[in-house]
Give the backbone structure.
Amino acid sequence: MLLLILAYLGGVLTILSPCILPVLPFVFARADRPFARNGLPMLLGMALTFAAVATLAAVGGGWAVHANQYGRYLALAVLAVLGLTLVSERFAEWISRPFVALGAKLTQRSGDEDSVFSAAGLGVATGLLWAPCAGPILGLLLTGAALKGASAQTTLLLLTYAAGAATSLALALAIGGRVFALMKRSLGAGEWVRRVLGVLVLAGVATIALGVDTGLLTRVSLASTSGIEQKLIDAVRPAPSAPAQSAVKAGAPLPVEGEMPSLDGATEWLNSPPLTTQSLRGKVVLVDFWTYSCINCIRALPYVHGWADKYRDHGLVVIGVHAPEFAFEKDPGNVTKAVKDMGVTYPVALDNDYVIWKAFNNQYWPAHYFIDAKGHMRHHHFGEGDYEQSEDVIRQLLTEAGQKNLPGGYVQPNAQGAEAAASGDATTSPETYVGYTKAQNFTGGDIAENISFAYHAPQMLQTNQWTLDGQWTVGSEYAHLDSPNGRIVYHFRGRDLHLVLGPDHDGKPVRFRVLIDGKAPGADHGTDVDADGNGTVTGQRLYQLVRQSNGSGDRTFEIIFLDPGVLAYSFTFG
């Protein structure tokens, strides 16, 4: 209920955002007609269409984005015709002959029995075009939709958001209708008002066609509404504090934190038949939540793998629960290949629907949960580090289970490449997403959402700023390169730079070249490029592009993709 209220209030606040401006002319085009037969059906059509399209965009793949783009083209054509019929009565009469649905029905008076359907059709067209500014509330809803997948709850939340926007638009429509009626009576300006509305409708069509609603207006709007929206989110869901780790002292008993949650709900199991809490009774269990493109998970993996090998014959069962962050990590083929490439031999549960994730009430990658032989959860650890403490927990639980003569020492993996431990520099650049839903520190203009746009990189970047150059389409999760020789530039700080990349849906490899401070990386190249900076994107995974051989100072990173079609997801540093 709190989320529904939050979604509704977020929609109401949309009226304060300049992103609503392009659709206002379409709304006011019927301000002089009875609300019940014109304004209400139009707003309902707009809300329902937006909820349906937004759900598809949040949980669907590239096909959903392309399908919606064709719908937008059709809607632009319909609304352009509406604008012309308002501007010119002669054009309205002419267009009504071959295109009755597009012309005459949209300009009929309220007494006509079809006016309700034409108003609803206008609302559907408006819903296809409306791109509300992605403030904190809408970002929360879209992220949740992408995380949980298509569901009645997803659509209900987005519909509630749209209903909030429709409410504020209805109030604006009521006020606007009275203003227009007053102007007609006092000035006798009915035809003049009609033509002005037609010009405004055509201006709205042009604004949306040029992408201004998802570019400049988005940047302007966030300055006015994001603060209010964030306060609403904080009131409903306070920001979580840093996770507390269980204290582990030599010889001290570990507290019982609860029963081991169910492992039911995995979409598939790798390296093992499905496991249950009952079948694991009598074993000490380590549950590792991970995803294969997460750098923190990758750096923890050598220790998890080492514990599995070291204590397998002494009663330890390690289970990797693969909970995807990006859509491509839901592909069982991608995960199977990653498991093989990373040398993971213990059981892996594919938790594509986050059933196990929610059963554990988990929120982190990586997260380690330690369960004793009686099925009690005794310890947990979130993130990297504290590996010796975690191994002490394993040894203590095995000893409690009656295991003797455990192998001594601690696991000391000789990790290489991306699996090597982080530098420990607290000033490294933060994890940075390229998709617009979570993008931060982008510079050089505005991010145009879901449309192909020509970006131009500025000459200078400040630390932690990044930019695009070339023809890109930025989606919610990734940026897609539409033409060759596109670039991403990042002024970063850190020893390592990683970038999650993938080829287009056709799987065609993409060649690239990396530069550091305008030169080939030489000894500072990562494991996925050579000293000249050359590399190839062949699969959807994390690529290590920079490993500085001396220190972790500020550098300017540049990657030039020689072929089109690459998908760029997120940067991580170490």
